[in-house]
Design goal:
The protein is of the alpha/beta class. The protein folds into two domains: 173 residues, Glycogen Phosphorylase B (Rossmann fold, 3-Layer(aba) Sandwich), CATH 3.40.50.2000; 162 residues, Glycogen Phosphorylase B (Rossmann fold), CATH 3.40.50. The protein contains twelve helices and 13 strands. The longest helix is centred in the C-terminal third of the chain and has 19 residues.
Length: 340
């Protein structure tokens, strides 16, 4: 197949540090190319991918940048023949393509804008457009308006080294963007209540610097350490030596790939019952689903009952990237066959 894939313009593929969606796109492209498919990617100019790259002319998110990048995408899509168009980026880029018969798959890794989906379905013809969500939580928001399937995010588990035993005094870890909705401050509360050390890792968005200064920095000490953003190698070590990953989210997480990365290292997850968390954590098997900081702190005392080898094994069978690629290929073929 000849496949066009669109990404958002802000972050290169693969990302050097933060960028969960960009990691998914990179691994998908790797797998598709290895299987002999021809892939064309529209992405950030600094992307390094094993396929043809069409670099965006702007990395901005303003209307002018949207028009510039949209014109580039559609110039190529109208001038070349593709078996399918797979979008991980802005649906606005594809508006000129929606009425065309070429099959299109729109994958949501964030909360979908249902008004956009409804407008797209009015423009589409002969079921030439379908959608995926990265969790049932996301997919169920799409299903009332369009055909949608869940394709869980995955990782290359071979790139994560399982640590099947840690000492009882091993630290807890928070890994993610340092912002209020991710619950970094709540992770500190949980660690203090559980009388455990905590390592905080992740980038601080510019608009969250005040949050860090006011809610996080004052609590840093010998037991609560902030180590900054980490790359893949550092992440592997950090998660592997952790007693558990804390996921005390204050929003509805669409997926939360860091949970899967931790579990690939054998590290269980303690997460709040919001968004996709209950789809990833099997309570008592690979972590605990909790409702507040006090409940989460209580579960820390039970974390030793979880077999870290079972955590790793579950991840290999449920969230291996080969599964994701197979699911997308199945959807590609179904869409193509519907148009033939």
């Amino acid at each position: 197949m000849k496949i066009a894939i669109t990404a958002d313009p802000e972050i290169p593929i693969p990302p050097k540090l933060y960028g969960g969606i960009e990691r998914i796109i990179f691994m998908l492209i790797e797998n598709l190319v290895e299987q002999g498919h021809e892939v064309v990617l529209f992405a950030h100019k600094d992307s390094a991918v094993p396929c043809k790259l069409i670099p965006y002319r702007s990395t901005g998110t303003d209307k002018k940048s949207l028009l510039i990048n949209g014109f580039l995408i559609n110039k190529i899509l109208f001038s070349q023949s593709f078996d399918i168009i797979h979008s991980f980026g802005r649906m606005a880029y594809l508006i000129p393509q929606i009425p065309r018969h070429v099959p299109k798959l729109m994958s949501y890794q964030r909360e979908p804008t249902t008004d956009q989906i409804k407008r797209a379905m009015k423009l589409s013809v002969r079921n030439n457009m379908a959608f995926t969500g990265c969790s049932d939580y996301i997919t169920n928001k799409i299903k009332p308006f369009a055909k949608a399937d869940t394709v869980y995010n995955g990782i290359d588990t071979n790139k994560y080294n399982p640590t099947l035993h840690v000492e009882a005094d091993a630290p807890l870890t928070f890994l993610g963007r340092i912002e209020a909705i991710k619950g970094t401050h709540t992770a500190i509360e949980i660690a203090n209540k559980a009388n455990k050390k905590l390592i905080i890792a992740g980038n601080i968005p510019a608009n969250e610097q005040n949050y860090f200064n006011e809610k996080i920095r004052p609590h840093l000490n010998k037991d609560v350490e902030y180590v900054g953003a980490v790359d893949d190698e550092q992440k592997n070590v950090l998660l592997g030596k952790s007693l558990a990953l804390l996921m005390p989210i204050h929003w509805d997480e669409p997926f939360g790939i860091v949970m899967v990365e931790a579990m690939a290292c054998g590290t269980p997850v303690i997460g709040f019952n919001r968004g996709a968390v209950p789809e990833i954590i099997v309570d008592g098997l690979n972590g605990f689903i909790t409702s507040n900081a006090e409940d989460a702190a209580d579960k820390v005392s039970l974390i030793h009952k979880i077999d870290r080898s079972n955590v790793r094994h579950y991840t290999e069978n449920k969230f291996n990237f080969q599964i994701l690629t197979k699911q997308y290929l199945t959807l590609y073929l179904a869409l193509i066959n519907e148009q033939s």
